[in-house]
Write a structure and sequence with these properties.
- There is one protein chain.
- This protein is mainly beta.
- It has one helix and 13 strands; from the N terminus they run βββββββαββββββ.
- Strands 1, 2, 3, 4, 7, 10, 11, 12 and 13 form a nine-stranded antiparallel beta sheet that branches. A two-stranded antiparallel sheet has the order 5-6.
- A hairpin with a 1-residue loop joins β10 and β11.
Length: 179
Amino acid sequence: MPQSTSTTITLGLCQILVAAASAAGTMPAKSAMTKIGKTYKDTANINQDAADVTEHFEEGKAAPEVRKKQKKVPKVTFSLMNPDPTMLAAYIGGSVDSTTGEWKFDGDETVDNKAIYIETEQGLDFAIPNGDIEAVVNGALSASGIVLVDFTVTPCAVTTGKAIRAIPKVASTSGTGTP
């Protein structure tokens, strides 16, 4: 693996884009994706849990002979503000009544996987061609509160390529670093 001579600093969120998922692993073009909604300030995170580790020891020895690690895939979490019935149906499940415009939900609805593209201000963007979305309503119904939809996106396996990708931004002459 080639060594990098420069330091990549990834920070800031520009937007989160979404499109139909591809179990084959193909990411849609950014121009074919749409902004998922308004991401609430300071809620977007990408985190990877520590690996599950199994250690095998010789009797009476403190150091393991073998350590078997099963790594976990990084997950993306964020919250969207200003949900409407269409957003609730698309990401939590349920349906929108065409006559009343009401969101109707009883919990047994499924939500399709989505391709997710996380565009940052600088550094690395992240692409998930086949993301399982778990979204839940989280709102404080008070004068100082707001209703949010909390998202957890788990990258799922694809037949070609990898479940999650980090894409370096290409330096541009304008200095924005957009690819």
